[in-house]
Design goal:
Length: 426
């Protein structure tokens, strides 16, 4: 199903007066303080975040999964869902596919559908964390790090197949996240596992087209609980450096031990030109995959401060692949994703309000209080009218959640797809 422009205009009608009033007030204030409101609006409008195909259905925990009715059960339906998100928010203009869950049957049809909804194919994700039907080898004891050459070769070939599929769709990046590691001390030789992973990644890298990137994701634990082979940004960066200039580190917010200074990690990776991708989510304890900004919005803002600084000052670092990597257990996945997109835009907009020159001067003066004031003044600004305006300028909804509910979209999806559908891979 496709949302028509007039549907969104109808949903905007009752909100328009209040929006205009709030926007004018904020825009006047910001302009008086030296901000270029048009520039901020343009940056917000250009900022597009990929939606992963696996986030469109209900996720689950290791205890169970509660279905959300009307879930997309085919790749086409997943792309349609991203189309709904993009129509309403104007900031979800890309989809990130997971192979083998999303292998297209008809490449041209899938490409046409995506382009009719203004959606691009972002990084493709390989899967060596579970066994595939009829596979000759098992990943139970690891994939790219496995002590068995046959397993490693199967995992390498899978990644090469993923590149091939992504290439046919117009993707330009491969994201590798490994579940490899050990559950108990002594189970693995750390050095052998790392060396095998390095050699395997190099073999995959050889199959990477010239204009592609390889994004190496890290995670400290889970599903292996004693050690993971690529446990942190240092391990990821070492592997990326070994592979070559098209390989980068990917930071996932949830893949850190509690209280890690993630803003510092992204800052230094950008300085070294090695931050390739970023996965958004939020967490309280571990890799909780909660709605972006729902638990630690200030940390998200501080991270965006560094990302904005890097985007403006580090030409050595490429454009980043942005993606939401969340899971939805109790909310409608589409509503949850709308909330995440809103939180991302909000943190980005606040970071854009930081006067970097003023901050630099305060830092050089060692005026610690002023540095904090500059950050917190930006953080305390209610930037929502700016985000609304950026969406409105592109034909989106003033309030995407309200529009989603007013247009009764979930029930339309249930009507067309049926109630008990399950997204592939979930
Ligand atoms: Mn991730």
């Amino acid at each position: 199903m496709k949302i028509q422009a007039e549907n969104i205009q109808d949903a905007n009608k009752n909100l328009l007066d209040a929006h205009n009033e709030n926007f004018d007030f904020l825009a006047n204030k910001l302009t008086k303080n030296g901000h270029k409101v048009e520039d901020i609006l343009n940056k917000l409008a250009e900022f597009q975040v990929a939606i992963p195909s696996w986030a469109l259905g209900a996720g689950g925990t290791r205890f169970g999964r509660f279905s959300f009715y009307g879930e997309p059960s085919s790749l086409e339906q997943k792309i349609e869902d991203v189309g709904i998100l993009h129509s309403l928010t104007q900031t979800a203009g890309a989809v990130s596919l997971h192979i083998p869950w999303d292998v297209p049957e008809d490449y041209n049809a899938v490409k046409e559908l995506a382009s009719s909804l203004d959606i691009k194919f972002d990084a493709v994700n390989s899967n060596t964390f579970q066994d595939q039907k009829d596979a000759a080898e098992t990943y139970k004891y690891g994939s790219l790090s496995n002590t068995s050459q046959a397993v490693r070769e199967q995992a390498i070939q899978h990644n090469l197949d993923v590149i091939n599929i992504g290439n046919k769709l117009g993707s330009k990046a491969l994201t590798v996240w490994l579940a490899d590691g050990s559950c108990f001390p002594g189970q693995n030789n750390f050095q052998t596992a790392f060396q095998n992973t390095q050699d395997s990644l190099k073999d995959i890298y050889k199959g990477l087209p010239d204009d592609w990137k390889m994004l190496v994701e890290y995670k400290p634990y889970e599903p292996n609980f004693y050690s993971t082979v690529i446990q942190d940004w240092g391990a990821s960066l070492m592997l990326a450096n070994e592979c070559g200039e098209k390989a980068y580190t990917l930071v996932d917010l949830g893949h850190h031990l509690p209280n890690s200074n993630i803003e510092q990690i992204v800052s230094i990776l950008q300085l070294k030109g090695k931050l390739g991708g970023f996965h958004f989510n939020d967490s309280k304890y571990g890799d909780d995959d909660l709605t972006v900004g729902s638990i630690k919005p200030y940390a998200l803002f501080l991270i965006f401060n560094e990302l904005v600084y890097g985007m403006e000052n580090n030409p050595q670092n490429p454009d980043l692949a942005w993606m939401i990597d969340a899971s939805h257990n109790v909310k409608d996945p589409l509503e949850d994703l709308i909330q995440s997109l809103e939180a991302i835009q909000e943190a980005f907009a606040k970071a854009l309000l930081i006067d970097q020159d003023e901050l630099k001067a305060a830092q050089l003066d060692n005026d610690v209080v002023k540095c904090q004031e500059i950050l917190q003044t930006a953080y305390r600004t209610d930037v929502r009218p700016l985000i609304e305006k950026a969406r409105l300028n592109r034909g989106g909804a003033i309030s995407p959640i309200k529009a989603y509910r007013e247009l009764d979209l979930r029930n339309h999806l249930i009507d067309s797809r049926g109630k008990h559908t399950i997204a592939t891979g979930l």
